[in-house]
Input
Amino acid sequence: MRENPLRSKFEAYEPAIGAWLSTPSSISAEVVGRVGFDYVCIDMQHGLMGYTDALAMLQGINLGSSTATVRVPWNEPGIIGRMLDSGAMAIIVPMVNTAEECAAAMSYGLYAPEGSRSTGPTRVMPLEGSDYVDRANEQVAIIPMVETVEAVDNIDAILQTPGVEAIYVGPNDLAISMGLGRDSADQSFLDVLDHIAEKCEEHGVVPGIHAAPSTVQDRIARGYRMLTVNSDLTAMRTGLVGDLATGRGEAVEDRAGGGGY
Output
C-alpha cells in the first residue's frame, strides 16, 4: 500500500495545501489532481456531485500525486465506508459537535478493533495493494469538522477522541454560529481560530481550515497546517471575470461571489 501524502505532511509538521471540487467533472478532477496540491477534496456535502460522479472524480485525482479526499454529506457509516472503498484516502466529516459524534466518525472509517468499518475494499484494494486492509487504519485519515460554537465548547473532548489526528475548521459555518456573517474578519472570530489552533497544538492534533490565497499565510502563522486555498468554481469564475474585464479594458473588480467553498 502506498503512503498517504497528506499523512506524510502531518508527520513532517509541514503545511498541506489543498483544493476543493464542487462540480461533477472527472476532467476537472484530473486537471486539479495534476497541479501538485497535497490533497484534492471532492465536496459531497455542498457540491453538485453524486456517488457515480465522485467515483469518476476519484479516478481522475488518482492520476496525480494528491491525496484523494472526500467531504461526505453527513456523519454516517454508509457513505464514509463507500467512499473509502472507492479510493478516498482522507474523509472530512461535517458538523461534528461532540466527542460522541467524533468517536462515531472515527469508528465508521476504521476497521476493527479500532472501528466498525465493514470490509469490502471493492476498488481501493486493486488500487492500493493486497495489504490494504492490514494497513488502512494507519494510512487513511478521518478528519472531523469543527464548525459550530458547540464544537468549540467541546474542543478538548473532541481532540482527545482516540484516533483523531487532524480536525478541519469550516470558517463560514463557525462565523454564522457565532452570530457573524460569512467571510468574517471580526476579532472575536479570529480569537476563536487562535483558540482552536492552540488547543490542537496542546493535544498534538493537526488543525485544518478553509482559507483563500489572500488569507492562507495568516492562517499558517496562526498554526493551521491543512489549508484549502481555492475551489474549482471560485477559481474559474475569478479567472473569467478578470479576463473579461481585461478584454474590455476595464478595471478588475472583486466580483468573485458564487461557487464558494
Observations:
- The chain has a mean pLDDT of 95.
- The chain is about 45% helix and 15% strand.
- The first helix runs from residue 5 to 11.
- The CA atoms of residues 243 and 249 lie 10 Å apart.
